[in-house]
Amino acid sequence: MDxxxxxxxxxxxxxxxxxxKLSNNNRKIAEYMLFNDKSIAFMTAxxxxxxxxxxxxxxxxxxxxxxxxxxxxxxNNKMKQLTHYEITAVERQSINSFTQLETxxxxxxxxxxxxxxxxxxxxxxxxxxxxxxxxxxKSVLVIGSRTATPLVNYLYFFLRKIRPxxxxxxxxxxxxxxxLENFKxxxxxxxxxxxxxxxxxMVSMLHYLENENFEYVTxxxxxxxxKQGIGKISIVTPITLNSLFDSYISTFxxxxxxxxxxxxxxxxxxxxxxxxxxxxxxxxQVFSKYDKKxxxx
Length: 297
Hints:
The chain contains 14 helices and five strands. The N and C termini lie far apart (60 Å). The protein has helices at residues 7-18, 24-35, 45-52, 56-66, 72-84, 89-99, 104-121, 124-136, 149-162, 175-183, 200-211, 224-227, 249-262, 267-283; strands at 139-143, 166-169, 188-194, 215-220, 235-236. It is elongated and about 75 Å long. It has two domains: 7-100, Winged helix-like DNA-binding domain superfamily/Winged helix DNA-binding domain (Arc Repressor Mutant, subunit A); 116-283, 3-Layer(aba) Sandwich (Rossmann fold), CATH 3.40.50. By secondary structure, it is an alpha/beta fold.
């Protein structure tokens, strides 16, 4: 059913369709989609019908009868996924101004829907296996770059509170291989973050991890790189394509869940570690004290 695996393939399919005998409506829709392949991912069926000058049912019929998708919703999700890998910030900005910025309510609702969709991608067994693998490793190296950097820092910051020997690398370039070489044959676990638009260095590094038989866990937005034979994707956390920049709320939510579960894998050791940390914080007055008289810090 799903013949579309890239925007290039989508355009070729539309070009084939346009060489056939079509109704006026179908020809208008196909031509518009061909020349606006990225912007249609951001549009509803109603917005498309208004822009093209056809009825909304005509849009739905074209998607289901001509493109052979079960529904417009599935087609739209697929186009968002494909667009995600190729669209630039400049293109996003122009598309957002074209379709108008969404209201806060609509934006937050899409985030809620995306969080709910997280349940389709992960399960308790998967989280349990991943948490034990991370906690039982001799050492852990967390790597990622560009948009993944805040995610890497978040996991690194809290993971080192509940287990020792946690390291981080967030720099693109060949020096990443120098870092990995230090962990080779050391029973280390590499935790890698990969998100669109996938940095070339990170994709090459995933291929390297696979070829060199590293023990690794990958967290990504889809299984695309696995399907391309580059390496295994362990955890999928879908991200939203609603605005100029991506939102990683679902990934942060997953990491929070994962950290909580990991803290119970070696409960007593983690408890002792956290207790010692709190004593260190108290001794060194790391945090400001709440002053009741001032009503704040």
